[in-house]
């Protein structure tokens, strides 16, 4: 089974999933490798949830689990960074101090507010909110290099008033194409995040039209993750996603080991 390279445990502020439970679920699904990528959104106001990762404790536990499960699954150790341009020096120092196999760069906050919270759309139309999100993601990708793959490109549509009912790649192509071009130029990957299926959107993040466009533009580094915050959603819709990616023109996907891409056949 495809390797799940985006999932969370109780080390993330929004998950209660035991580390062991996520690993055991991956083994039960037949995965030969996986990467745990707990949240680290630094310098944000996220209400009652603290998304600051206790990195030393996290790495100690991951190393312990990696050793314990070494004969059953290859465990890679990752992190999901919440991107903001003013954190560039902070990210550089963090990644010099700590070693990870894989770093997801995700855009969660737009002008200090996460689209997850309904008030994000209180002062904007849905179309304005989506455009603001893509503009912010483009700024993040242009300003920062401290990540390996860009997470859930159209994450914002999970939480729009109409979700993806009126959403299309074409409507936001101006910004999305520039995001893809920036990733390709910098040698960064694009994530295919299957949480969109789990959220009943009928699509991964990003939309298949964006995945096709990325491939047409020469994009080759593609990571796959469920974004699971519990064991039930680990590897969610991976068989369906595998076929979809082949239809989009991909023959390989990517896992990262020591921050270097390794290509696996779909």
Describe this structure in words.
The strands form two sheets. A six-stranded parallel beta sheet has the order 1-2-3-4-5-6. It has a two-stranded antiparallel ribbon with strand order 7-8. It has 266 residues and is α/β, with parallel strands linked by helices. 33% of the residues lie in helices and 17% in strands. The protein is built from eight helices and eight strands, in the order H-E-H-E-H-E-H-E-H-E-H-H-E-H-E-E. The model has no long low-confidence stretch (mean pLDDT 97). Helix 4 (126-143) packs parallel to helix 5. Strand 7 (252-257) and strand 8 (260-265) form a beta hairpin. The chain has helices spanning 19-28, 55-68, 88-97, 126-143, 173-186, 195-198, 208-216, 238-247, and strands spanning 33-40, 74-82, 102-106, 149-150, 189-193, 222-225, 252-257, 260-265.
Question: Topology, pairings included?
Answer:
Elements: H1 19-28, E1 33-40, H2 55-68, E2 74-82, H3 88-97, E3 102-106, H4 126-143, E4 149-150, H5 173-186, E5 189-193, H6 195-198, H7 208-216, E6 222-225, H8 238-247, E7 252-257, E8 260-265
Parallel strand pairs: 1-2, 2-3, 3-4, 4-5, 5-6
Antiparallel strand pairs: 7-8
Helix pairs in contact: 4-5
Q: How are helices and strands ordered from N to C?
A: HEHEHEHEHEHHEHEE
- Measure the end-to-end span: 9 Å
Task: Return residue spans where pLDDT drops below 50 for at least 5 consecutive residues.
Answer: none
Task: Give the structural class.
Answer: alpha/beta
Work out the radius of gyration: 17 Å
% residues in beta strands: 15-25%
Helix proportion range: 25-40%
Main sheet properties: 6 strands, parallel
Overall form = globular
Number of strands: 8
- Sequence of strands across the biggest β-sheet: 1-2-3-4-5-6
Return the average pLDDT rounded to an integer.
Answer: 97
Number of helical stretches of at least 4 residues: 8
């Amino acid at each position: 089974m495809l390797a799940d390279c985006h999932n969370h445990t109780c080390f993330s502020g929004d998950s209660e999933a035991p580390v062991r439970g996520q690993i055991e679920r991956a083994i039960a699904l037949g995965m030969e490798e996986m990467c745990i990528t707990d949240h680290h959104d630094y310098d944000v106001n996220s209400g009652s949830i603290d998304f600051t990762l206790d990195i030393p404790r996290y790495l100690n536990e991951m190393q312990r689990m990696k050793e314990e499960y070494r004969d059953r699954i290859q465990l890679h150790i990752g992190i999901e960074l919440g991107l903001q341009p003013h954190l560039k020096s902070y990210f550089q120092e963090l990644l010099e101090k700590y070693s990870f196999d894989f770093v997801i760069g995700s855009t969660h906050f737009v002008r200090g507010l996460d689209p997850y919270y309904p008030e994000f759309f209180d002062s904007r139309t849905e179309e304005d909110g989506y455009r603001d999100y893509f503009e912010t993601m483009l700024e993040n990708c242009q300003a920062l290099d401290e990540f390996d793959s860009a997470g859930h490109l159209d994450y914002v549509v999970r939480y729009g008033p109409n979700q993806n009912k009126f959403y299309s790649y074409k409507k936001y192509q101006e910004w999305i194409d520039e995001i893809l071009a920036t990733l390709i130029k910098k040698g960064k990957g694009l994530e295919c995040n299957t949480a969109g299926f789990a959220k009943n959107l009928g699509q991964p993040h990003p939309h298949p039209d964006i995945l096709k466009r990325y491939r047409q533009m020469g994009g080759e580094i593609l990571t796959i993750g469920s974004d699971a915050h519990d064991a039930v959603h680990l590897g969610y819709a991976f068989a369906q996603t595998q076929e979809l990616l082949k239809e989009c023109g991909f023959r390989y996907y990517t896992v990262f080991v020591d921050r270097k891409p390794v290509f696996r056949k779909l």
